[in-house]
Specification:
elongated; two-stranded parallel ribbon
Amino acid sequence: MGAAVAAQARLNGAEVLWCPTGRSLATAERAQRSGLTAVSGLGELTQRADVILSICPPAYAEDVAVEVSAHPFTGIYVDGNAISPASMARISAIMGRTEATVVDGSVIGSPPSDSKSARLYLSGPADALPPVASLFVGTAVQARPLSGDIGRASALKLSYSSYQKASRILAAVSYALAKDYGVEEDLLDIAQGRSTSYLAETAYIPKVAARSWRWGPEMGEAADALREVGLPADLAEASAVVMSRWDGHRDSSMTISDALEQLHHGTDDEPH
C-alpha cells in the first residue's frame, strides 16, 4: 500500500523520497518501479521532506514515529496506519518532541493503481490538511479531509475494517462448516441472493437488537456445530456475547441510536 500511494504522489509531480536502510530487496524493487528517490538515511529524509507519510503494518507505527522523532523535522507528519485513536494520540505525543505538525490519516480501499482507487481520510489541524491533499489531486488516491481533531480518521478506518475484515473471516469459517457437510454450493446460492452489505443497512440494527434473545442462543448452537468438526468457534461465541448486551429489549421497538448506545452497557453478569 505504501509504495502504491507513493507512486500516485509521484505521478502528480511530487518528488517522493524513501529510506533504503534496513529494507528488503522486494521493497527496493517496488520503490524503483514507482520512481522514488533514495536517501542516505532518516536524517537526510527529515531534512529534505516537507511531508512524511507513514504507511506500514500497524504494529510498527509507533516505532516509525520514534525513529523519525529522533531527527529534527518541521514539516507535516501523516500517520496513515490502521491504528486506534489512542495509538494515534501516543504517536502525536511522540512527534511532539519535534516541531512537526501531526495529521491523522487512514487509507481505505485497495492499493491505488490504473484500475483501482483508494480514499485517504485526513483529520487534525485544518491548515495542514490541504497541503497533504494537494499531493494527490487528480490521482487514484482520493484525499478526503474530515472535520475535527486527531483520532477521527483512525476511528473511521477501524470502524470500517472491523466489519470488513471480521466479516471475511466469518465467511471463511461459514464456508468451512458448510463444506464439511457438503452444502457449500447451497450456501453460496443463498449468499448470491443478496446485493448489498449489512454495513449499509443501518435500519436493520434495531431489529437485530430486538431479536437478539433468539439469535444469541442460535449463535451458541453455531459455536457447538463448529467445535464438533474442529473449526474455531470464537466469532460465533463472541457474537452471542455481544447480543447479550441487548437482553431486556426482547421484541422491543428501538431507535438506531438506542440500540447502539445499549452496546456500551454490559449485562449484570458481564464485565464492563
